[in-house]
């Protein structure tokens, strides 16, 4: 019996698709440059100076990346690089466009309470794009094919397998860094940043990749045992306690993230990642059911704990955001009362000199304060955009809070419309599918798990943040890969693309020629 | 054991996640877009009005109101009013909220009207914003300027209205004191909002936001005798040559005498109606009113446009002019019918009778136009930016206030006012009309009126002017009306 992977490998033409990749890359660049041109034409009636600085800069970088990939990983998937460049280019153009609209006083308002440079900032985004694509180039250069481990400076994706536990440990350290006093920073209510020497980094973005490596390494060793041994009750086979251990550890860890960082999105992301990789490794649905059940229990417990009332509130806001606009207060009775500037209690608290009148007013009422203005203003942006959007440069994205980071998808929705968002979602879906195809085509179990994991984590992250800002699921703060402003996210996602590109090259390149007749194991063409 | 199968399943699951997102985005931007745009919490719909150029307001080929880019994010467009003080009674202001033509034609000026979007469906389809249409007024800018300059000299409340008797087009609508809409235009930001509040709260009777030409009522005094006479002539078979009492009249309720301004000439004891009208003998018209009763006076005046607000444009009405049959007693709070004395005083435009200058111009228009009043309007045409016509005013009859014959006789009586009556000082202006001097209660200045038509023969325009102060309508409002009508007729 030949597996799907064998079939795919058998059908692969082993062609270098560099010409196709180049054509797509040029298309991605045309897309980006057009976006810049449209911003300028809509706002000033002329081609903006940014077209050459930003578009040109991105073009040079992208073509450099292309040539490195064509030379050192010629069999790499032709779609990955152009798709990532297209996303990065659209994001850069949008941030450039938001920059133009971020007037001085608006910028000051944004900076208020956010402490770090947090307003849209195209030059820094270009710099991080430079770093990100630079990392892609470096990663493609440094990482070698799995069969060339003897080369100097030898590092293959598989090398990571040797340091599974070390990598798992570093992932956890990275995740914990933001709660270390001194370097940890809380921005927009989430303590997921560290600040070193003026630079702010979200270590979670990198921890995500390291966790995938750790899960892959761990599960490759344990998957046989976990999938085969266990009591069978009805259609379900229960795992052994010792196999259940790790999932409990991860579960408790994710709940820790949820409690300490109050970040349901991140907890969901890690746990979803672990469960999906567990399933890929063991092929047993019972693991998925156990995982989903544990997550549900975790969230249920969280909603019961008094100090975690905001999880309840998040869910409440998601279902019914209107009463929370401009400040609402969830009372213990479950009733929502407004505590916005129009209310008496707000005015009293404001007169008493409270810095956060809505918050202290709600505290006085004995409830949980929250504000749905972000979510609703984001949705209003989507409504404004409608099917075809207002056109780049012609909307009012400054009305959306965090229009350049968490809500950039809504900003794009306003100006590009439903049409633009569908295209963006399709690009994401294509990257994920290309990654999954790479996983299926890969020969090594560790690499399969690894490629599958990073592809799925990308899909899950897009789902959590985009689903959040479009009111499909409760809103939690995560970056939108390649689009959001932010260096950590860009770097981590470019590394992700580099890994996938390198592994796809590995999976798609021609098998070594059989030197002699190997009989039944010989590679044969299926055609 | 192979991982391809679960990988494929996870890949499918990942695609389901994307399908979920796509479905949600379709739901939000497709079916929910309209609901989101009009959500009460959505301030975009209010800010949106500042982000596209509004149409111009034009009169006599001059651009009175236009939008210009501010160079700021919000508001993106400001609004400039040329000679704002002069034209604000017609143009109104715009600052998100609006008044007058800015309000009445808001959807066309703002480009949101269906008439524009349907015409520009392709633009709408490709996401191009519909541009605001230009509104062309019937106003005569030169006459309007003269009117404002004249009214300004009076230094108290005053207003003037001139309408084309054949079409109903309002060619002058001026008021003093006025306000400058530039002070509250979008580009002024918070300062403008505060200024508007200040204008709104201005103390005393002087409220600049309320114009004195069509939004403020005054006691019409003797100019109302035109209405009383018209009703009496139609109902009691009187003609301009019928002899009427002009001598003293003792009011039945109070046994007090109703005075005439003078008891000489026609106002001696008896005279033809024409003479009594020309010299404005109070007793004659008070007696007429008592004879017909307040109900008849009320019903008759309704034909001229009294007792309900006059609709000028969609969403724009003039203040209601009234001949009340009963009024609320301010002390008891109960409605009390207008008694005999009150009816007599109502007949001469006192008691609780109130009228806007526009209303009195409509009365004069009925006289000048064979008893027919055309519906007054301000906006002549609306054109989209590509010059295609979206709206064109069609003259409509407002009412037949009296028979043509009655109107002709009244026209003759109005001419007599200037040739031999109370307004002989106005002979040089080539106008005919009726003077009016109404008392506005103790400590208040008189409301001084002159309403009529021009040219004297073959009248084309009807007008009314009110000013406040000591003295009489003939001496004070008359010359102002004359100056305005010179500008109107010489056009």
UniProtKB/TrEMBL annotation, chain A:
Predominant location category: membrane
Spans traversing the lipid bilayer: 21-41, 47-67, 79-98, 126-143, 163-180, 192-220, 241-258, 264-281, 288-308, 416-434, 446-470, 482-501
Organism superkingdom: Bacteria
Membrane-protein topology: Multi-pass membrane protein
Keywords for the protein's UniProt record, in alphabetical order: Cell cycle, Cell division, Cell shape, Membrane, Transmembrane, Transmembrane helix
GO molecular function: lipid-linked peptidoglycan transporter activity
Gene Ontology biological-process entries: cell division; regulation of cell shape
Signal sequence annotation: none
Name this protein carries in UniProt: Cell division protein FtsW (Lipid II flippase)
Species whose genome carries this gene: Actinomadura viridis
Automatic annotation (TrEMBL), chain B:
One Gene Ontology cellular component: plasma membrane
Residue ranges of every copy of the Penicillin-binding protein transpeptidase domain listed in the record: 160-485
A Gene Ontology biological process term: cell wall organization
Signal peptide start and end residues: none
The Penicillin binding protein A dimerisation domain, residue ranges: 54-135
Pfam families for this protein: PBP_dimer_2, Transpeptidase
Keyword entries, A-Z: Glycosyltransferase, Transferase
Name of protein: Peptidoglycan glycosyltransferase
Organismal lineage: Bacteria, Bacillati, Actinomycetota, Actinomycetes, Streptosporangiales
